[in-house]
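Before relying on records like the one below, remember that each one covers exactly one chain. Contacts with other chains, cofactors or solvent are not represented anywhere in the record.
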Amino acid sequence: MTVTTLDTVEVDGRTLAFREAGEGPAVLLLHGWPTSSFLWRNVMPAIARDRRVLALDLPGFGASDKPTDVTYGYDFYSGAVRGFLDALEIDDVALGLHDLGGPVGVRFALDNPGRVRALALTNTLLYPEDMTEMLTRFVEGLQTPGVRERFTGPEGLEAALRLGTNGEASVTDETIAGVVEPFASDEDRLALAKAGAELEDAGGVALARELPGLRMPVRVVYGKQDRILEFIGDTVERIQRDLPQAEVTALDGPGHFLQEDDPERVGELLAEFFARH
């Protein structure tokens, strides 16, 4: 199996961590909340057979810096992605996206169409109308002292992992540690709360409106048994309406963190797509 290495780079005075494997045209994988490049560790080897694959720890997550004096909005995330690619002198890239990384990566693709040659989406939320009552309460909780500490503490993060997976084998001691350990301090956990709650509502509306403007190849691979994004099927139907070029595969069994539930299959499906683009 290809070994992914963990490295760091300085971007705008902050340290960003990333995993890397393989050679060839670049593929960049973006995670969501509350994960990191760790989520992609078992998906990357298949992609790395034909591509240089990088998985970034977005600021606020993983081993990257976790500032608490910034707003984790679209401009902040896009600047981090752009700065990361510039620092590594990568001119064009294919993107693989999950959860929060979905709107972050799609925003980057909309703003930088000449730098993104292809786009792969896994379980993510791109439309404001798909915000369920549970998700709305969750975002409100991340902004509420007392509640946010429960959501971002070890028990809350393990609960999120268990809710997002559909097999006991997916929740190992290693997996729990990979999700929990990056958030050891109160400041780390505050950054995590901010990182999950500060994407602007207006930005989400604009993203959904502009989505049909994407012209690059699109691949969707999603777990149907998603208990976090309960209406993922509706989201994918909207994606197919707005992006008729999208190739879609629905996986029975995996949940929200399909990279944990079925990493080999997810890896092979994404590898086949990225090898063509």
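The chain has one domain: 5-276.
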